[in-house]
Every structure is written in C-alpha cells, then in structure tokens.
Amino acid sequence: MKPNNSAILLFEDGREFHGSSLGYIGETTGEICFNTGMSGYQEILTDPSYCKQIVTMTSPHIG
C-alpha cells in the first residue's frame, strides 16, 4: 500500500469528501453501501451481491 493514495468521493449533488484509497487506483462509479459488521469482512468484500457497489466498512478495526 502506498502511504498517500489520496481520493475524492464526489456525490451527484456536488458534495466532495477527501480521504485515502485502499485497493483500486483509478476512477470508478457505483452505489455506496455501508456494512456495520465487526467480522467477516473477507466474505463481504468478495460477495458477488456487492457488484458495482462501493462498500464502506463502518467498524474502525478491520482485520
């Protein structure tokens, strides 16, 4: 992982959120969904039902 993979989350209403990206480098679009689980993140991130969605993990400790 590169230390400074800056990212921008841009909503269709024009709001911007700046942060860091893990994983894919490039531009993408998709529906944002949230997962509040504290375990099972491997299954969540490989679950085909999340296809074309941007998964946001809400638990502060993953792994």
Number of helices: 1
| Portion in helices | under 10%
Distance between the termini: 15 Å
Strand content: 25-35%
Mean pLDDT: 86
Poorly predicted runs of 5 or more residues: none
| Largest β-sheet summary | 2 strands, antiparallel
Largest sheet: spatial strand order? 1-2
Order of helices and strands: EEEHE
Work out the number of β strands.
4
Any idea what the radius of gyration is? 13 Å
Coarse shape: globular
Structural class: mainly beta
Protein name: Carbamoyl-phosphate synthase small subunit N-terminal domain-containing protein
Domain Carbamoyl-phosphate synthase small subunit N-terminal: 5-63
In short:
This protein has about 60 residues and is mostly beta strands. Helix content is about 10%, strand content about 30%. InterPro entries: CarbamoylP_synth_ssu_N, CarbP_synth_ssu_N_sf.
